[in-house]
Amino acid sequence: MTDAKVIPFGEDPRRRSGRSRSRAASQEQRRPPSAPGAPGAAGASGADAGAEPSGTPDASGDAFRAASAEAEVAAPSAGAPGADIPAQGGGRSGERPLRAVGGTGGAGEPAGGTPGPGGAGKARRGASRGSSAAGGADGGRADGLADALGAVADRLLGGPWEEKVAAGLAFLRRRVTGDYEVDEFGFDAELTDQVLMSLLRPLYEGYFRVEVKGIENIPSQGGALVVSNHSGTLPIDALMTQVAVHDHHPAGRHLRLLAADLVFVLPLVSELARKAGHTLACAEDAQLLLERGEVVGVMPEGFKGIGKPFSERYKLQRFGRGGFVATALRTGVPIVPCSVVGAEEIYPMLGNSRTLARLLGFPYFPLTPTFPWLGPLGLVPLPTKWTIQFGEPIPTSGYPPEAADDPMLVFNLTDQVRETIQHTLYELLVERRSVFF
Amino acid sequence: MAFPGTAAGPLVPGAVGPGDRVRAGVPRGVSACVAAPLGRRRGGTVACVPASIPRGGSGQRGRKALNVGKVVLVTGAARQLAARFVRRVQREPEVARVVAVDVHPPEHDLGGAEFVRADIRQPVIGKVLARSGVDTVVHLDVSGTSLGGGGRAQAKETNVIGTMQLLGACQKAPTVGRVVVKSTTSVYGSAPRDPAVFTETTPVKSLPSGGFPKDAVEVEGYVRGFARRRPDVAVAVLRFANILGPNADTPLAEYFGLPVLPTVLGYDPRLQFVHEDDVVEVLVVAATEPRRGTLNSGTFNVAGDGVLLLSQTARRLGRPTVPVLPPAVTWVGRTLRTAGVTDFSAEQIRLLTHGRVVDTAQMRQVLGFTPAYTTAETFADFAASRHPGLLSPARVAGLVDAVAARVGDRGGKDVRREEQTT
Question: How far apart are CA A259 and CA A262, in angstroms?
Answer without folding.
Answer: 8
